[in-house]
Amino acid sequence: LVHYNDIPETETAAMPYFNKLKEGRTPTLPPFTSKRSIRTENAGGPVTVHIYSKSETSKYEIYKKVIVKALKKTIKVWSRRDNKLKGDCRVLQKNIRLIKSPTAINGHNTNLEADDTNWAVSDPGNIFCQVDKPYFRNQTREPAMAICIENNDIFARFSEIAAQLEDCPLSIVYKAPGQLNGKIIVAGAAGNWQNGAGAINAANGHSFAKALEHVVGNDVTIKFLAYNNAPPRVPKVKTKSNSKGLIILSTNADAAAWIVHTVPGYPIPKTVYTWPAAETAKGHLLLCLTIPESQINAIAASLLFIQPMIHYNDIPETETAAMPYFGKLIKGEIPTLPPFTSRGSIRTDNAGGPVTVYIYSKSESSKYEIYKKIIVKALKKTIKVWSRRDNKLKGDCRVSQRHIRLITSPASVSGHNTNLELDETSWAVSDPGNIFCHIDKPYFKDQAKEPSLAVCIENNDIFARFNEIAAQLDNCP
Fold first, then answer.
1. pTM
2. ω before 410 within 30° of 0 (cis)?
3. In the UniProt record, does the keyword Hydrolase occur (predicted)?
4. How far, in Å, CA of 80 to CA of 163, rounded?
């Protein structure tokens, strides 16, 4: 709506688009989106500015369909939002991450209820964008414009404001043997495995590094506990636990994550990201669950049974004072009276669609075999198992609808070949199913005498992707 103009026509005679603008003309033929660039006038260092716009005839949503598509990067968005559009982590490296409210601008507090600004920063980044429409569903039917400035310093200041993000609920990375790029699925968008954007041994640009950025970095607001039966830089540790993972929390927001993985000696806390070269030849799995901090105590209660080797913890007691099981976990306490098995459940932190996760664990005092006596018994279903196996435990088809069927090796993870000789992962899917389980012990007879843990995710899409790998089964003996 042009409400004032005193620019003489002599100044704009050679500007046809300016004349159309002041006359109120609009595009009537496609394309109904526009991408332009200008540069500021500064001989010392002109700044590139990209201008993205769409007419009301275009039904594109400007944040995802225009800005993300143009930048080819994830964006972190500060904007009022409705209850329809959510953060979007479906497309690798092209996510929309929503910045948490409230936040601070160099000491001045702001919140989405009172802030009329809409802006975004790229990730990875040097771009800041001002957007003239909020992150509402109905803006797809309206004209909109984004002005994106390519400047390291401006980007850095706004990126500081964007330090805390609302979480995408759950993601899984499967790195097949010999591969440096993993395959990725995200809960809520697991219609297909996606290719990893970068090599897993690179310092950044891939999901492993992104999940661990605050572990290898030095963010004073992020604290974590790390456990690994083969801790980094500590040779020949003796432990019956086989679990590897991290509990991460923010000290200035109700935000936490539980990462479960299979990689020995990894990651090295507070050190530049490194990937253990010997593990490239092997298959590995990483699960990242974002959770409210209230779920940490339930996780700790399950971990107590497996006696994890904790090699790093800087979570202050003030954050966990109301978490008695976490306190016992860091002190190394273990259950001395029955029951020696545990069943717990948590839910990921995503109002748009939280995912239920069941945690089954057993101590070494329990002589139960975790696959049949705990997982099958809890799920009341047959399970199909991908795991290294000894020559003692076989598939088991004795009890109707409570079978253990072994997945045939070799197999394929969306085009990446894997085999049991090189794959360190142990997992199962239910049959019939919507449940995927990661198990920290292989399908060996002697695991009945050792502590063990299974993390079982109830999600149709994640189940479907792993069930595809489980297409071929060994015959029951």
1. 0.74
2. yes
3. yes
4. 17
